[in-house]
Amino acid sequence: GLIAVATVKLVPVDKDYWRAVTKLKVGESQSDWVAPNWYSIIQALFEGYDSKAIVVDEEFVGYTMYEINTDKHTVFVDRLMLAEGQQGKGYGRAALSQILDEMRQREDIHKSVISFVPGNDAAEHLYKSLGYIDTGRIEHDEKVFEMDLRANKDN
To answer: Under a CB-based contact definition with an 8 Å cutoff, are residues 63 and 42 in contact?
Structure first.
């Protein structure tokens, strides 16, 4: 049956929001799986990546950072984290779906690449369910998945 899902919004991390985002932490058992948000925010600023808070009903629940690389026609989703206690509610799926939907509208972006630490089964399951394919590659000790964004376009 259908259940009412809270509205998940992606809000750019700026001078008003960065402190709240740095306070979001994953569970202790997952701390090796994702860089701390303060590091990602700095990286995004200096390397020119999109840096967004995941917000549900005015509450900060997670963070995502992605690189739109028009030379490679690719969006690289470098970070996707949900705070402890906010996982398993569909917020990660909703956030990633919004990014992918936005990228499908662009003529200059043809695929998405995402990676994760082997053993992070929840991430692997989520990415496969959204249509990512295992490339078989390991980069920076992470499994690399990708998706052809032109495959399922309604044109």
So the answer is: no
